[in-house]
Amino acid sequence: MSASFLPAVDAFAKWRDDLRSGKGPTLYPVGEGALGRLQIGPGLVTLLGGPPGIGKTALVCQLVFEALRLNPSLRVLLANVEVPAPVILDRQLARLASLDLSLIRHRQLADEHGEALTAGLEQLEALCERLTFLQSPFDLANVAATADTVEAGLIVLDYIQRIPPPGDHKDKRGSVSATMDYLRQFADAEIAVVAVAAVGRTRDSQGRSSYDADGLGLASFRESSELEFGADDAFLLGSRNKSDPSLLILRHLKSRHGAPVDIPLHFIGEHQRFEPLDEPTDEPAPSTASRRGKATSPEMAAQLARLWQGAGTTDGDGRHE
User: Fold this and answer.
1) Averaged over 90-108, what is the pLDDT?
2) Which of 66, 169, 177, 216 is 20 to 30 A removed from 32 (C-alpha atoms)?
3) Where residue 85 falls among pLDDT bands split at 50, 70, 90?
4) Contact 99, 109 (CB under 8 A)
5) What angle do CA 106, 111, 112 make, to 5 degrees?
6) What is the rounded average pLDDT of the residues 51-80?
7) Going by C-beta distance under 8 Å and a sequence separation of 6 or more, which residues neighbour residue 178?
8) Is residue 175 situated within a structural domain?
9) Overall number of domains in the chain
10) How confident is the model over 173-199, as a mean pLDDT?
11) Residue 317 belongs to some domain of the structure
12) What percent of the chain shows pLDDT beyond 90?
C-alpha cells in the first residue's frame, strides 16, 4: 500500500495564506439572541440530543426555518423519519403567525385570524422555495442523492439512529458509527450537517432508570460513542423545571472550536416557539451575535435562576416533540 501523508511545511503554507486572508469560516445564522451563537456551517457536524418528548424536533425545525429566513441563498434538505411534512408546516405556521397550533391542526381558523394567517402563509411559502423534505427510503444513499439534486447547503437528519448507511452492519452500534463516517464526508464536501439523536436512559439519585437530565451527558447518545466523537458541537435539550416545564436548557456538552456555553430557553407550546432567555449571571455569556431577545420578567428570572441552580426535572411527556 502506498503511503499517504501531508508535509507539515505544505500544511503551514496553506494555513498561513488562509490566516492572512482575513476571511473567517462561513456560518449560517439560525436564530436570534443566544440562539444566534450556534455555529452551524459548511464543514461542521452539529449533534442535538434529548429524551423523548422534550422538544428536539420542534427546536431543530425552528432552527431550519430560521436558517432559511436569515440566509437568503441557503437550500436545506430535511430528513424527518417520524414527523410528516404537513405536521411540520402546521407547527411553523403557528410559530411564524403566532397562531394557536390547535386551531391550525383542527382547521378551525376564523375571519379574526385572517391577517395573521395571510402574513404567516406568505413567509412560509417563501421559505419553502428553498426547502426539500426527504421521502422514503430514509437512508443515507437517498440523502446523498437528494442533497446533490437540490444543491443543499444544510442537511438535517431527524433522527440519526433511524437513517441507516449503505452496506451491512452487524449491529445498530456499528450502523450508527458508519453513519457518522458518512456525515463527516458530507461535511468534508462543504455541507453543514445537523443530526438529531436519541439518548439512552440513566440512573437517577434513587437508582431508577430515567431520563434525569442531571445524569445525561456525552455518553448518553444512544448506540455509539462515534456520535459524540465525530461531532463538532454536541447539545442536549433537557432540564425541565418542576414549577414551569416550559423552561428548558440547551446544554452545550462539546465544542471543538470554542468554549461550550449553555442556552436557557422558554418554550411556548401553543406557538411551537423556543425563545432564548437571558442568563441569570452578573456578566453576559460569550456570544457571536448581538442579543435581541425579549427582556426577562422578574418572575421568569427567578424561575430561571432556580433552574440554573439545579432544580428538579420531570420526564418528557411528549408535548413538545
Assistant:
1) 97
2) 216
3) very high
4) yes
5) 95
6) 96
7) 165, 167, 169
8) yes
9) 1
10) 90
11) no
12) 64
Check whether 7 has a pLDDT greater than 70. yes
The dihedrals phi and psi of 94, each to the nearest 5 degrees, come to -60, -40
Q: What's the half-sphere exposure (Cβ side, CA atoms, 13 Å) at 103?
A: 18
Query: Is residue 192 within 8 Å of 153, Cβ to Cβ?
Result: yes
Give Cβ neighbours of residue 204 (< 8 Å, ≥ 6 apart).
Answer: 210, 212, 214, 215
Q: What is the CATH number of the domain that holds 99?
A: 3.40.50.300
Percent with pLDDT over 70 in the chain? 77
Sheet strands (E) in the chain: 45-50, 76-80, 131-133, 154-158, 192-198, 202-203, 209-210, 233-238, 247-255, 263-268, 273-276
Q: CA quadruple 56, 57, 58, 61: dihedral positive or negative?
A: positive
Q: How many Å apart are CA 128 and CA 225, to the nearest integer?
A: 35
DSSP 284-320: PPP-SS---PPPPPHHHHHHHHHHHTT-------SS-
For residue 157, the SS3 value is strand
Radius of gyration of the chain (CA): 20
Q: What is the pLDDT of residues 122-151, one digit of tens each?
A: 999 999 999 999 999 999 999 999 999 999
Strand partners, 64: none
Residue 47 forms part of a structural domain: yes
